[in-house]
Design goal:
It is a single chain. By secondary structure, the protein is mainly beta. The protein folds into three domains: about 5-155, Immunoglobulin-like; about 160-300, Cupredoxins -  blue copper proteins (Immunoglobulin-like), CATH 2.60.40.420; about 330-475, Cupredoxins -  blue copper proteins (Immunoglobulin-like, Sandwich), CATH 2.60.40. Helices cover about 10% and strands about 40% of the residues. It is built from five helices and 31 strands. Strands 20, 21, 23, 25, 26, 27 and 29 form a seven-stranded mixed β-sheet that branches. The protein is globular and about 65 Å long. The two termini are about 40 Å apart. The structure holds copper (II) ion. The site of copper (II) ion has 5 residues, from loops.
């Protein structure tokens, strides 16, 4: 590392601190030699061989960005350099970081200005499959390719033949074959979000993963789409699910609900390839049953088998150190989602829509949380927190979706337990940071508010958070 670079960084660091004001904390400065540099930059790349180049924004020139792999308990030190021409940040999705490291501009830090840097440092307490992405102008920044996997390896990883990370996302390609530049148009904001027409796995459409007979692959799926929800099917095969949103579950055959992977969700599967040379497993997205399409293929080679017979159930992964939620002492909070296109005008949600209709049209805020229109962070308008929580206390949030759309609801800084769907308790322990809530569904989540700070609670359909589906909860 040259002194000049450190000098520039320090000046930027001070500038950022000053701009942030008293309530925002800048990242800790650290010695350069133990730091991974990540550069957010713009460049021309083809989305597909047959298409002209589009302007993509990437981490280190690649989609997905630099795969980060650390051991559980390790200190992670990342220096983000912003070579974009607009402010950015990095949010460590699903990782329980200290508030100042959470990467949410206008809430936990100042935006990292064009040409600026920011130092992120945190300890990776939980093992699992996570990812990182910006948390400002997100529809465009993620929609142009800014996301990368963060894998925290267990102290004792399970014995699988291979560990494969698949980052799923989609791209909206215009008639000219280039990435569509219309981010945050009113239709996307008020409907299902920005859906693309080119689905890729690690930026490759419909890839083929080749394996051996009876090979067991740990498949880590990350949905980094701006809006697309996947309902995955594996043909005749039903893979084992071993973790949801990074957190271990007792291994079981994956249910349809497990395989419903919304933006922000991750799922770790143990996939056993068939005991048949030449066999192909078609992985299909059946979210829209009328428009199913293939996402990827697994094929079995005709060479040596990994083993003579298929393996039995995989071993459970060790639990992460999440504080157990105390149902008896928990305080209940209600959260009602309303608004959006095609939302009913009946019931409480309809009443809220009628009440806010005028200002919804004016403000381009199409979604209502607890009878409030909440402007996005950075709009200059401040909004009171949705909830204020006492540190160390247990909470239940009873969510109800009175909109016509699915929403993956993401809570920062915490891992919650999904307690009930439509009032029915879950059979299995399900720990998550992002939970899909279906139209007219009620979902109860419970957690210990043990991480002090100001945290986002929002839909991970990025057009929706832009249009009112995001609020702040405080813990302290
Ligand atoms: Cu949403």
């Amino acid at each position: 590392m040259t002194t000049q670079r450190l000098h520039i960084s320090r000046r930027q660091f001070l500038a950022t601190s000053a701009a942030a004001g008293a309530s925002l904390t800048a990242g800790p400065a650290f010695a350069a030699n133990d730091v991974t540099n990540i550069v957010a930059r713009s460049g021309k790349q083809k989305l597909h061989n047959q298409l002209p180049a589009s302007t993509l924004w990437t981490y280190d020139g690649a989609v997905p960005g630099t795969p980060l792999r650390v051991k559980q308990g390790a200190e992670v030190a990342i220096r983000l350099q912003n070579k974009l021409s607009q402010p950015t940040s990095i949010h460590w999705h699903g990782v329980r970081v200290p508030n100042a490291m959470d990467g949410v501009p206008h809430l936990t830090q100042a935006p990292v200005a064009a040409g600026g840097t920011f130092d992120y440092r945190f300890r990776a307490d939980d093992a699992g499959t996570f990812f990182y992405h910006p948390h400002i102008n997100s529809t465009e920044q993620m929609g142009r390719g800014l996301f990368g996997p963060l894998i925290v390896e267990e102290a004792m990883p399970p014995g699988m033949d291979r560990d494969v990370v698949w980052v799923l996302n989609d791209w909206r390609v215009g008639r000219d074959g280039r990435l569509d530049n219309g981010f945050n148009n009113p239709h996307d904001l008020s409907h299902a979000g920005r859906y693309g027409n080119l689905v890729t796995v690690n930026a490759t459409p419909d890839p083929v993963l080749k394996g051996r007979r009876n090979e067991r692959i740990r498949l880590r799926l990350i949905n980094a789409s701006t809006g697309r929800i996947f309902a995955l099917r594996f043909g005749q095969m039903t893979p084992w699910v071993i973790a949801l949103d990074g957190h271990p579950v007792t291994p079981r055959r994956a249910t349809r609900n497990d395989l419903l992977v919304g933006p922000g969700n991750r799922i770790d599967l143990a996939v056993d390839l068939p005991d048949k040379a030449g066999a192909t497993v078609h992985i299909v997205d059946a979210y829209y049953p009328e428009q199913t399409y293939r996402v990827a293929r697994l094929t079995v080679g005709d060479g040596k088998a990994a083993r003579p017979a298929p393996l039995g159930p995989p071993m459970a992964l060790a639990a992460n150190p999440i504080k157990r939620f105390d149902r008896k002492g928990a305080k209940s909070l209600d959260l009602l989602f309303a608004g959006g296109a095609m939302g009913g005008m009946m019931g409480r949600g309809g009443m809220m829509m009628r009440r806010h209709m005028q200002s919804m049209m004016r403000s381009r805020l199409f979604w209502i949380m607890n009878d409030r229109l909440i402007p996005p962070l950075g709009s200059g308008q401040s909004a009171a927190p949705l909830f204020q929580m006492a540190k160390g206390k247990s909470y239940v949030i009873r969510m109800e979706n009175q909109t016509a759309f699915d929403h993956p609801i993401h809570l920062h800084g915490h891992t919650f337990q999904v307690l009930a769907r439509n009032g029915e308790g879950l059979k299995h322990l399900e720990l998550r940071d992002t939970v899909m809530i279906r139209p007219r569904q009620r979902i109860d989540i419970g957690f210990v508010a043990d991480n002090p700070g100001r945290w986002m609670l929002h839909c991970h359909i990025l057009s929706h958070v832009q249009a009112g589906m995001g609020g702040v909860v405080t813990v302290g």
